[in-house]
Amino acid sequence: MKWSGFLVAAVFAALTFGLWAYVNRPTAEPPWPARVQGMAFSPFQAGQDPFVQALPDEQQIDSDLRLLAGKVTAVRSYSTLKSLGRIPELAARYDLKVTVGAWLDRRLATNDKEVAAAIELARQHPNVIRLVIGNEAILRGDLTVAQLTQQLDRVREAVAQPVSTAEPWHVWLKYPELVEHVDYLAVHLLPYWEGIPVDRAIEYVVSNMEQLHRAYPSKPIVIAEVGWPSDGRTRGGAVASTSNQAMFLRRFLDLARREGYVYYLMEAFDQPWKARYQGAVEAYWGVYDVYRQPKFAFVEPIVRIPQWQTLAAVSVAISTVILALLYIHSLALGTRGRSLLAVVVYGVATTLVWIIYDYSRRYLTVSSILIGTLLILGMLGVIAVLITEALEWAEARWGKPRKRPFDLSAIDMPVLPKVSIHVPAFNEPPEMLIDTLDALAALDYPDYEVIVVDNNTPDLATWRPVEEHCRTLGERFKFYHVAPLKGFKAGALNYALKHTATDARVVAVIDSDYKVEPHWLRTLVPAFADDNLAIVQSPQDYRDAEESAFKAMCYAEYRGFFHIGMVVRNERNAIIQHGTMTLVRHSALTRVGGWAEWCITEDAELGLRLFEHGYEAQYLPATYGRGLMPETFIDYKKQRFRWAYGAVQILRAHADVLLSSDARLTKGQRYHFIAGWLPWMMDGLNLVFNLFALVWSAAMIVAPHRFDPPLMMFSVLPLALFAFKLAKLAHLYASRVGANIRQTLAAALAGLALSHVVSVAVVQGLLTRSQPFFRTPKGKQPHALIEGFAAARAETAWMVVLVLAAVGLTGQYTIAPGLVVGIPEELKAPDVSLWVAVLLIQAIPHAASLVMSLISALSLPARWLGRPPMSTGVPAATPFRAQDSAD
């Protein structure tokens, strides 16, 4: 690694550490008072839950009150039944006053018991200073105003202490008739729930207190709940965090001292049990956590993450290790290439550290651990794809080649060896195959044979004309019709291999639709002067890109792989062999056992097997033959299904070599075969993710208070990957492929349109052993419009469901209009909005499938995309230009 690499790494390490420091700069706030007037008091411990009657015992309640003694003047309880009815008696031991609360809901008989117990406690214990009968019962809709006032009047007649019910400020303004039945207003002021940013939360408290004083000047006001959560969903401008909780509470306590407010902080201890019924945020309102430890500094300046130096050091260390590995094993990169890698690596490492830290601080259950683990594993997959995409971008644009450019003109081969050209065919249009054979007959090469193997074509009228034409072309051309013949294309190629001339030194394979250039063999065969070279590969290219917009879009999508990915892979002797326009050393092919009939992508599998036997391959990004593209979108999908399913077959069969340090493959070869297919593997996981996303979104719509959206960073990473891949494609298509903006967008659309079929292929590849070989038909007529919809019916269904989920969430998570003064009427929770964005992004590939299918059916003109850049065969091909690697 050059000194510039160290410099780039050091600069980004400093920037990363500086960013952590900036985000966590200390904020001075008013100190916590020596004693707080009051706190809401729910003494439930970890694992306890009132809904299943798992209640704290007397000893636990006593321990909590002892902890608060000397720090708090009074506590507010919420129920009078069972052990919770002991709170006034136990509080008296520590000179704590109590506001007794009676819980009221739809269970009217239980309500009567709560009220009766509250009356008894008020009569028995002098430290009971007031009563709260019902907690947000009107807000929840559990009781009518008439039902509630009946209970209030009952208690007021029975006790000497002041009596009220607790409701948010706006409920008191909405129901003035309720005020007539209370001695004071027990008001909840919780700015978080109304989306108020923490910097405006004190203003919110003052404003609403003034409204209540103006509306009811004769009634005392007690702030029965006031607080801020330390974790949970972001709501409007309100961010739930420990630092914001500390900031708000310390500011409020200073305000309360100056204004003389009577208040109860919400609340003494975190209550994890609430998350199961009211959403995750309800678990995090405590000044102390569920283990009774203070959650923030009471006097010192507030820091967002007190342990930030450790986390920053960890993120820098992880980034440095990953970046060093990339720099050491990548091509020689210019400063811009190294900087791109540094931006991605430091960004994802910091994100990873922050997410794991944030998640680890939550109250985790078995289900949340399971879900969190799956999300983190998915996130690691996204990060892996991001890094591999970044490395390919950097190497393709700013990499300096390690291998000497392949100069064909410098090769001296006085005697050109015999070549056996194999053409497998099944049910091909005879006119098309005859054109292919005529192009082979025109080859400018001294010694070659052509073996055509027609396997299993049932119609005599299809294969007989080809057989007759081979006879007219002379003894070089041999035709075999074999039926039955197992093994699909690989079976046909193995049959051809058995009938190959014994003196042939090179085997060439082309598809039945390819017209080769006359100089194809004469230009490329001399490369086999290198005895260790087993494969010479040139790109798949096509001659029908100008027939329709659909084919022009397919053509644009194909070119990215052949002029970007394959060029980079060639630098590490790790190309994907594809089964047309390929030349293979005959002896090497025989030595490794021929073509794999168990694999539906026998070409890529053979290439990997040859690498495992120590052979070399060479790729030249120049065209020496052109074929035909799929005629319809459904055929396009079948072709990509075969490629993706075959990739999974290969990964499963060669896992012992690919996933180990087996010396049969170099590190670079293992990297490219894993990283190259990783995006397809992630597409497979994406299918599972979409199922999870829909189920989770449905739960959020049906039970919004119980199901929160995933952490924002879990949403940010997929969005970042989507944007990053689009930026990479736009840059490399312009700089490497020579495409215009329309062709670049077309390539992006075509690639996205295949995401679903790839995901299905990957999942099926993991669950099954074999699939039928999907031949890509050529020369078919495009489908009618109705068939265009039918070809993308599965993708359309996914698109509709994902969009409906996004629309449902958008409607569900809108804060009530007019509830809060000074903020927009439709203020949505940003983490929900981000999750909605994820759902819509997930719908884009499915929408792209429908668009591609319709474009295929409508036969739109190709001229809309502009003339495609065409490659030509040249005697030498240099994969990188010198100016591209300059700093």
UniProtKB/TrEMBL annotation:
The chain crosses the membrane at residues 308-328, 340-357, 369-394, 711-733, 745-767, 797-822, 834-860. Gene3D superfamilies: Glycosidases, Spore Coat Polysaccharide Biosynthesis Protein SpsA, Chain A. GO terms for molecular function: hexosyltransferase activity. It catalyses: a 1,2-diacyl-sn-glycerol + UDP-alpha-D-glucose = a 1,2-diacyl-3-O-(beta-D-glucopyranosyl)-sn-glycerol + UDP + H(+). Its EC number is 2.4.1.336. It comes from the Bacteria. It holds the Pfam family Glyco_tranf_2_3. The gene is ndvB. It comes from Steroidobacter agaridevorans. This is Beta-monoglucosyldiacylglycerol synthase. Keywords: Glycosyltransferase, Magnesium, Membrane, Transferase, Transmembrane, Transmembrane helix. InterPro entries: GH, Glycosyltr_2/OpgH_subfam, Nucleotide-diphossugar_trans.
